[in-house]
Structures are given as structure tokens and as C-alpha cells.
Fold:
Amino acid sequence: MATEVKVPTLGESITEATIGEWLKKPGDAVALDEPIASLETDKVAVEVPAPAAGTMGEQLAKPGDTVQVGAVIALIEAGGASAAPKTEAPKTEAPKAEATAPAPAQTAPAPADDSIMTLSPAVRRLVLEHGIDPSAIKGSGRDGRLTKEDVLAAAQGARQEAAPATPAPVASASTAGGRKEERVRITRLRQTIATRLKEAQNTAAILTTFNDIDMTAVMQARAKYKDLFEKKHGVRLGFMGFFVKAACMALKDIPSVNASIEGDEIVYRDYADISVAVSAPGGLVVPVIRDAQAMSVADVERAIGDFGKRAKDGTLKMEEMKGGTFTISNGGVFGSLMSTPIINPPQSAVLGLHRIEDRPVVRDGQVVVRPMMYLALSYDHRLIDGREAVTFLVALKNAIEDPTRLLIDL
Structure:
């Protein structure tokens, strides 16, 4: 008797999702609670666990299909993986091999085509772009799945091997080949990001103010204590811990930056739930550090590390993405020098961090080189005045340039 696989409850107000990929093929053995499919929702990817052990049966939805909560998307047949799915394939392939001797050259690509069908959209795009055979790559992701890093590393290795043996005329001939296009369905997460960001532009009066910050003191503190910090707390000491604590202190001084407009009222808060943008396979997601004002730097670093890991694994929960009061986005990890971040409604402000680079600055009448970073604060001018925005950035700048202020709340 077959067991139905249904779309699980996905969270408050979420009624549908999109099939991202099937993690099991018909005929594969399935263990109880083993992930068999991934769903893309408005906020995060969710894995569908097997409701029973047995053999993967018919799949009633394809990747890219929109499915409702509670809908049946697959069947799991009772018992372990039967021998039939395993032995039928060789029996059907054997006569072809005997009847047509040259067939191996045509059937060799089949494993690659099959494996591409089970890749995530981002990985599939890289595989096609670089012409890599995914069956020849060992996956480092969950259950041996390929990640973008695996494909990029394989492509880099192939280029290094091919470079000495490939003469220049051949290379130029290959680059002059046909042009390719690929159409990929927009993920539900990307659609939601686009909708929310456009909503912010249409609703809020967004303005951005900038400042720069000397990172010398924080970099020296990090270099001095990072080994002891990691040994004691089991997590690396980064810069985000300092910025989150400095932001909490500045939000306390300038409460309007931590407030929001709801109808004809302004909601002020005595707590800081900091949304931290982290990179996920489907785009940026923004989990929330609850009550960050009461956390230590070690607590903050531990929370951010956990969010980053689970964002890549696709295991962030819906409730972890809701309710932030202020956002910090670090484009510097991707090399950004300066940007104008967009606020995340209903929040009223977002802080953008950027890359650190040595620049000449004047100190005590002398031109010296310092590691500098640009800060950007985008804010809703309906609620936050320019004076308050600049005061917030100056308070944060002072705390980072003199970390002792974080200890004495100054």
C-alpha cells in the first residue's frame, strides 16, 4: 500500500510553494523522515521529509510546479527498494548494446543528463555554463549533492589542465562558437524579494546618508584576541559582532531608527531585533537576532555563524525570518565599496557595510594610511529626519573607532 507525500504546513499565511527539486528518484530507497524534495516558499527553502520508509514511487509534480499546502505530490510504496527498478534497466540496455555496437558513444552522456535533472537551478546553470559533467564531480553538500562551489572548483581544475595543452588558435575558435541562452523560472523567493523591495520604494520616502569609519582599533582588537576568543567561545571573532553591538547602542540613543509606521501610528521599541542579511543559494535571506541588545559579542557571532550555515543548508525556519526592527547588510564580503541599501518593510532603516581598504587620511595634521570602510544608512524620511540619521551613523562610528565605548555604554 502506498503512502501519500503531502505538502507540509509552511507557516502562518503561507498557502502554497514551488517544487524546487526532487532529492529522490522513483525506485530509490527512502528512510523515514529522510528529505525527498525541496520546496521554495516566499521566504526560504523547505525540505519535505518522507512520511514513511519504503521505495520512492510516482512523483505527481515536477520541479517548478506550484503546489498548495496539503496537496499530494508523490507516493511512497511499502517495503524497501525493490529489485525490479534496479534490474530492469540493465535488461533493457543489454539488447541495445548487443544489437548496436557503436552505441556506447551515444549512451555515455546519459548519466550526466540524469544528474542534471536533480541539481538545484543555480548548480544546473553553472554546470551548463562551464560544460562540466556533474557525474564526475564528488558533491560536498547534504547527501552528496553538488554545490556551486563544487562545480566552480571542477571548472577551475579543468581550465588549469587544459591551458598548457590547448594552442591559441583552438581557444580562439572555441570562443567564436554559437551563442547560447537558457530560460530559468524565477524562484518564489526571488519573486518575493522583488515584490517587497518594490513595495518599499513605492511606499517609503527612502534617503541614504553616508559616513566613513576607521577600522584600525577593531582590527587590532580582533587580531589580539581572536585566538583566545575562539578557544573560549568556540566561534570565530568577526566584525559583525562589534557592529551589531554598536548598532544596538546607537538605536537606544536614536529610537526613531528602530521604530516603524503602522497606519497612523509610530511604534517605538525598547528592544532591538536585528535582521542580518546572509547569503543563501536562492538569494539573500534575512534571519533575525532576537533581543540583540541583551547579547554579548560572542552570542551575536554564534548566532550569525549558525544562520549562515543553515542558510546554505536550506534549514532556516520561517519564524526566524520575521519580526526584525533594524537590518544590517554586509556587502563588503562580496567586495562592494559603496551602495544604497533598500529598507526591509515595515522597518524604517537599514545599515550597509562595505569592504575595508587602505586609504590616505589626515590624523593630527599628517597624512597617514588607515583601513577605512564606508557606511551607508538608508532610512524612511517620513519617520527619520536627516539629523537623526546622521547622529545615528556618528554614534556608530564613534563606538567602532573606540570599542571601549561599547563596554561603558558611551
Summary: The chain has three domains: 1-108, 112-185, 189-408. Residues 81-117, 165-174 have pLDDT under 50 and may be disordered. The chain has twelve helices and 19 strands.
